[in-house]
Specification:
Layout lengths: L14 H6 L5 H12 L4 H8 L8 H13 L9
Helix pairs in contact: 2-4
């Protein structure tokens, strides 16, 4: 199945937030993000993290922001 749009969308990417986390927090945050995004594979996770998935709804975005905020990252959006 081909992706409709393989162009990265920095406004919907949270790679910047991942890079601002403490290394010790990364596994826990990644696990929570898998649950929020309902992904089960590393490739699916990377597609969201890099902004390749265009249909990130508002509820998921708010949950992601709250998760990063709980780890001291105020603005996770971007590459």
């Amino acid at each position: 199945m081909a992706r409709e749009n393989t162009k990265k969308n920095p406004e919907k990417a949270f790679q910047k937030g991942l890079s601002e986390l403490k290394v010790r927090d990364l596994p826990e945050v990644r696990e929570a993000l898998y649950r929020i995004l309902r992904v089960t594979t590393p490739q699916g996770f990377r597609n969201y993290a890099n902004g390749l998935i265009q249909n990130l709804d508002v509820d998921k975005a708010r949950q992601i922001e709250a998760l990063f905020a709980s780890y001291g990252v105020s603005n996770p959006w971007g590459l």
